[in-house]
Backbone:
């Protein structure tokens, strides 16, 4: 017995395929891809040019090709769609689940979209897709698929099994059968396990489970994620206001959303303004990075103006300048810590949230504690190195004020962004450090000014 | 027909429960919790004291209580375990899946652990748990559960259905039946859908699917996540070196791991050294934040030493000091951008990775482009504000050097950390900004020194 394991994707494999395309050796290509999981073919094609990919896709069985296409990353997909005719796209869409199909159609210009929809072989599919395209991308309706198995309350297990048999080709993954009444209102669900174990002739209404968790079409994707995660669900039915069964969301879509969100947050925290990866072009990388660098630069010039106000003081006591990075670095670190704690608690929204006053009081106490600890340490080190009690006092006082102010700004900024409908993680990035650099410098020199 | 929706958790509900505990009104508590999903009970108990929670748990049906306990967060769980006797814990463990059970036992002191295991009512469960506890937490063996349904190749569909019936209580979620030979070697799987649709008397060997993706007990959790995500799996079988079926990992466990990883990365990037949340105590928050603030502070004192070397220059040209934050802020921003791009590409490991030389060349070109753009801008602004060509030249030259060096250090650090087995996201935190602050200052003053 040979070992069963995921197909091993290698650069050699990709290169041998590329060679075969150049030689026009279609037999070799087909042989190489025989039995390879469509997800692996997709991963390989991500490395190929659009023309190479089109060649390979045209050789594949339509159903496999459809799966390969539906797995592509958004930007590769967009390039792909340009080289296929509307009829070509439609032939693949016939095999793609309605949620992925709607996503693909959303990438197309309006005219092509209409052509693709009118070329679809199934009217039901066309209807499903048009229905799904009405929803925003980030609500449950925009993530759900129309493919699901439902059974009427009064059906027998055999009737339901027959329905599964009829739909088997359309619905690839069945976790449970949703139970509806004559008006398509969602009543509950029956797991396949229960159906398998049921005696012959059993009615659905005698075995179905009423304790069903569902979600509304207009619920936000964060809500979908948190409900599915909390209740460990692999699929969740989606209903409209009237509790009519509209679709279902499966866990793999939720995982995709989670992955996207994690990447988006990482980019926001790092001050990268586009979805950019290491293998993107030099031009894309530069374009993604320059905006926040420029904003940081301009912020720093404002900082320079603040320092410039005290030029004569610095000339008199040049050692003042040596502690500028101490102030700005601490301000930045504290602000990022504070904002990330708030971002975390916004991500895991609890129903048992403390009041704003209570939360801010806590932030202030923590900030005072941290500030005093750091101030004492900074006082000790600077006095030990410089032996100037005035300078050390200024540093200690400025540092505790800066920690307090940076904590407050780091806490409040993500809350405000969230209220404005902006991803609060944006507050944990260069914006907050730039802002706190200027704030910190102002405090430092103000304290120094008062003291001298 | 009433609307079916997730149970609404509110503070009022929690308060009414707390009141009932004080009044010792057990009937009210039981009535309130009737039909409430265990995951919701868990969420409520997270807000209660350990004694209050113990009271509620003791009232619940053991199976529901077990589920409530297994959903608790790690630190709440740890507090809980202290107030139960080993026999009490064992009675719950009887109802908890082996993977969660092993996690719970890992929280216990060795002696209590042995007592709990010897008090378990099922020898098989005890064996399973002991087996699972041998694996590291972050490999497939440490995530998998022993509960699964397997069928011998030569069984009929009816025999397999009977096995499902027998195991129904132990295995809550069945996605597919794993097919093994007489030596427990994994051969493939049969979906429940296929079993339901199969004709009577069909042999498993005639309907099973050989194209099965499995994972090894010793594969790392990142590998588990990436395989399950790539192939859209809701469950994956885990095998040992000899391809014997050892357990299975379900998607809900993978989602938990993903959530944990996202939180860990956020904390690393923000320089928070413990898993701390907004509702944790003031003491915990301070303890989690102070280490990186102190490290940043000490780093800044090194920076101060660098600046101190040029004290007399600053006294002569005090405006030099005004551009210190410009240098340090840009160095930090560039380094964080670079490291986060590397962290991202380490997270989505591609088999088609470019060579190190090619990757570094690209980093250098992007850095030069960014550096030159920023330098030109900084030259223009500083000349416009100050009218001193020398100062503007120093800033421009220093800035482009700093962007280049910060790009390189931001790229290399996470790669080194990853090689050392440390989470590379640690390189996107205060460490990299502190390091680059010092580096930036050294470059800035060195350039200034050469020019004057």
Residues:
């Amino acid at each position: 017995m040979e070992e069963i394991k995921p197909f091993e994707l290698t650069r050699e494999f990709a290169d041998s395929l590329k060679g075969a395309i150049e030689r026009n050796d279609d037999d070799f290509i087909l042989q190489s891809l025989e039995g390879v999981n469509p997800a692996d073919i997709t991963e390989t094609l991500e490395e190929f040019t659009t023309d190479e990919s089109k060649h390979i896709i045209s050789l594949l069985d339509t159903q496999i090709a459809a799966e390969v296409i539906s797995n592509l990353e958004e930007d590769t997909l967009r390039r792909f769609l340009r080289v296929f005719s509307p009829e070509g796209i439609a032939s693949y869409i016939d095999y793609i689940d309605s949620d992925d199909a709607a996503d693909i159609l959303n990438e197309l210009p309006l005219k092509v979209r209409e052509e693709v929809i009118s070329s679809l072989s199934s009217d039901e599919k066309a209807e499903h897709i048009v229905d799904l395209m009405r929803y925003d991308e980030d609500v449950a309706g925009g993530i759900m698929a129309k493919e699901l198995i439902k059974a009427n309350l009064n059906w027998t297990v055999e009737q339901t099994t027959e329905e599964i048999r009829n739909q088997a080709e359309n619905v690839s993954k069945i976790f449970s059968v949703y139970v509806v009444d004559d008006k398509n209102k969602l009543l509950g669900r029956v797991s396949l396990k229960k159906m398998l174990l049921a005696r012959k002739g059993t009615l659905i209404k005698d075995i179905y489970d009423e304790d069903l968790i569902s979600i509304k079409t207009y619920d936000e994707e964060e809500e979908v994620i948190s409900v599915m995660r909390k209740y460990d669900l692999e699929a969740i039915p989606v209903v409209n206001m009237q509790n009519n069964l509209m679709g279902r969301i499966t866990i793999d879509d939720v995982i995709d959303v989670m992955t996207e969100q994690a990447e988006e947050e990482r980019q926001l925290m790092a001050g990268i303004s586009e979805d950019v990866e290491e293998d993107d072009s030099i031009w894309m990388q530069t374009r993604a990075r320059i905006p926040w660098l420029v904003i940081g630069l301009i912020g720093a010039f404002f900082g320079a103006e603040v320092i410039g106000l005290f030029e004569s003081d610095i000339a008199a006591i040049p050692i003042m300048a040596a502690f500028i990075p101490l102030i700005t670095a601490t301000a930045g670190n504290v602000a990022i810590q504070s904002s990330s704690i708030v971002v975390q608690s916004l991500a895991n929204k609890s129903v048992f949230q403390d009041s704003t006053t209570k939360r801010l009081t806590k932030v202030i106490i923590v900030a005072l504690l941290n500030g005093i600890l750091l101030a004492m340490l900074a006082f000790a080190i600077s006095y030990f190195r410089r032996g100037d009690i005035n300078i050390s006092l200024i540093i200690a006082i400025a540092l505790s004020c800066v920690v307090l102010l940076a904590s407050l700004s780091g806490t409040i900024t993500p809350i405000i962004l969230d209220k404005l409908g902006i991803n609060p993680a944006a507050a944990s990035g260069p914006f907050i450090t730039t802002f706190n650099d200027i704030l910190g410098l102002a405090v430092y020199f103000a304290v120094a000014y008062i003291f001298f």
